[in-house]
Design goal:
With about 425 residues, the chain is of the alpha/beta class. Bound molecules: FE3-S4 cluster. FE3-S4 cluster binds next to strand 10 and helix 15.
Length: about 425
Amino acid sequence: MAELRLTAEEQAMLEGAEGPGVQRAMEIVATLARIYGAADLVPVSHVQISGVSYKNLGDAGVQFLREWAAQGAVVRVPTTLNPAGMEMDRWQEMGISPAFAEPQIKAVEAFVQMGVTPTMSCTPYLFPDYVPRRGDHLAWAESSAVIFANSILAARTNREGGPSALAAAIVGRTPRFGYHLDEERRADVVVEVRCPVRDVADFGALSYVVGKQVGTSCLWFADLADWLPPLPEDLTVGGPAGDRLKTLGAGLAAYGAVALFHVAGYTPEARDLGEALIKPHARRLVIESLDPAYKIMDADRDLRQVDLVTIGCPHASLSEIQQIAEMVQGRRLATRLWVTTARITRERAREAGWVQAIEAAGGEVVADTCAVVAPVRAIGIASMATNAGKMACYAPAHSKVKMRYGSLEQCIEAALTGLWNGEAP
Ligand code: F3S
């Protein structure tokens, strides 16, 4: 193991000067630093914690959090939470049982006791108060947010685990290795895309065909800017570019384990550093078609009717909520529709009247959770449709549901008519 340099303050934390909760956190951070060969720790400006749903935590996880909170551990940098397994103040309406809700509430209370802000969203980069700046060091544990922060915002974070992110928040530092270092931000794979990539679902399909072939590599997309509108000044609204990029990143992180991609002439570091960001012996990957992705992601082609249409993975942006509201305005849904989003985004959308339009059609704009981390089978959902690549990856495996995958228009049409592609059952 490499020699790890700790400051006097860090060494004191390790020796218990700030109590057992901080000591436990510093033990985790220092151990990881040694395992990964970090020379020292780097201060972080923001932490995002994953593994919040009781579905993932289980009783042992809830107990672990409560014990840590009882030891007096408190976060020392702004820290936010991933989605929980239910909407926190509307779980009865969602059909969630008390046996699930009660430990879920205890888990969130433990985080709050430690000073964590209970945002319950996987899109901290859409929150006006938390958007990282270029070069900021973070400890984020949500893989879709990690890749967005690294790639689109040029902030710096590794893919933290739930406990390591919480430990980083408590000590305000994370090991300096991986994506915190310039050298690790250079591309190992150059991707050339030779087929049209037109909408969010296509970007999800692209994430499948690339993600399955690249593992943890850092990517350089040579020509993807041709399929992207300009990046807006304010990325917290989403917009056509932001929505495509959030879907692409989430899928690359789910089908592969990618934490950083560059788009030539487009993303911040690629614009400034150009092809100097490509490693000398980078592999070349040519994508000729998205058809193989659609064949796998649109997994259950015999399925004509779905129990739930779910949009918002990662959590829906304002622009996505606006599009859905305009598509269902004045109409009546035949199938259950969840637009999953952050509480703050829902409030902004409500001010614009978009939430009311979706609710008037019979849909729900659901905060705090999503169709992967909620116990959907227990509330009667056995099949879904989505336009989100990560949802198509995780929901069949994590929630044991059947899946249809397609464009936003196909999904909303299915919600309105009750039939996928208008096909009779
Ligand atoms: Fe977020 Fe749930 Fe997708 S946590 S990224 S909406 S699987």
